[in-house]
Structures are given as C-alpha cells and as structure tokens.
Amino acid sequence: MVLGTLLVAVILANVILTIISSQSRLTHHQVSRIQAHYAAMAGVNYALEMLRINDPNWLIPSSPHNLCNGCAAPADINEPNLPASVTNVAIRVIAPGAGTPGCDTTAVPSVPAGVTACVQATATYTYTP
After folding, report:
1. HSE toward the beta carbon, residue 67, CA cutoff 13 A
2. Fewer beta carbons under 10 A from the terminal one: N or C of the chain?
C-alpha cells in the first residue's frame, strides 16, 4: 500500500514538473514575440521621425534600413537597447499604391487621405528554449 501511494505521488510530481517546465518555455516565447513586436513599432517610429526631419537617406523608394545590436554593415543603424532576443528590425519606406502589400490605397481599409508614404517594419527574433 505504501509503495503504491509512493508511486502515485512520484508520477503526480513528474506530471506537475512537466507542466511547469512547458509553461515556462511558452512564457519565454511569448515574451520574445512581444519584444519583437515593440522593436518593430520602434522601427516604425524611427522611420517616421527620419521622414519628419527630411533625412535624405530615407527618401522613397528606399532599400530596407536595419536596426540591430552590434551591426556590421555601415548602412545599418546600431541600436544597443534592442532586447537580446531581437536580432534585426528591417524598416522599409515605400510609396503607396495598388499592389503594395499593406500599403494599398485601393483597399478598404486603406491608407488615409494625404498619406504619401507607408512604413513597414519586420522584426526577426530568436527563441531558444
């Protein structure tokens, strides 16, 4: 009877530890995704500021600009405050028009009237369980 009770307790403890471990991994992944989302939003805000001050490097059409931590390329923007999980934020300023994904002036909902550029940002993040 004691051995049976002990076996049930060990199995139950093992199940609980597995659930806790799984939840920890899922939480870490969710935090990495949220950090990547806000890093991309920071990239959009950065691009909007560069457009506001008429920085010639951000004219339309542009090649992607990259925010990264410890960039090697001189054209990239070194941002040491990026979270460790975010490896790169690619920012692109494009002219709106039909066929431009996410910036189609013919689609509904569409780009608001008077907007002459769209900013897209994509964050790349790593997740190591």
Report:
1. 27
2. N
